[in-house]
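Known limitations

Structure tokens in this collection are predictions and should be treated as such. Users comparing against experimental data should check residue numbering before alignment. To illustrate the layout, the record for PPIase cyclophilin-type domain-containing protein is reproduced below. The input appears on top and the generated tokens appear beneath it.
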Amino acid sequence: MAVVAAVLVVVLAFVILATKLGRDTSPAASPSTTATPSTTPSASVAGCTRAPERPTTIKTQGLPDKATAAGKTFTAVVTTNCGDITLQLDGAKAPQTVASFVALARSSYFNDAPCHRLTTQGIYVLQCGDPLGGTGTGPGYSYGIENAPKNGQYPAGSLAMARTSDPKSNADQFFIVYKDTDLSSVPEGYSIFGTVTGGMDIVEKIAAAGVSGGATDGAPAAPISILKVAVTEKKA
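Generated tokens:
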């Protein structure tokens, strides 16, 4: 009986984490599975302006060739309604993931996309990337995991892809880790494809404002949306 109980605990832990970091593909009944952002802030955060209305459609496209990012490093400036967040993208370690992110950014896919989920207990991430706020089906393609840490540790500042329980469901949604997070209970993990090099204070103040309604997983109480993403390749 003790062995059975232990197995059930492990399975339950995976289900919870997969739900929190899943690439949501359908409307959900509660904030524990998706979060629909509001354009009216429920918390006041210095430096943030009113979040824009989110798009009503998604621009679908084909899977970018990973060769366009392989061995390259990119800088992405994510302009939000709360300020700029700067990312360094590692095409050497995660070429397909970086190629996808760069292509989506350059096609204006992320414009006005809300960061629809904040988690403040157990795991510490801000999840963004779906123009429809966590209810979309993605950009028309998906791909597998790259560069997932074997020990399941995601340090603060990590930039990683969200997905469902299917390891090949990576697409548009990504998350920023704002506090060291242990995801070792999740089989196969999540792709780390870069790091935050500037603007982490923005993510931290959104996290400090908490989740809408006082929950620990759901829409940020202080809405934050991506206005645009500018990507440039770093030359050696």
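For this record: Helices lie at 2-21, 95-106, 200-209. The radius of gyration is 17 Å. Please report discrepancies through the issue tracker.
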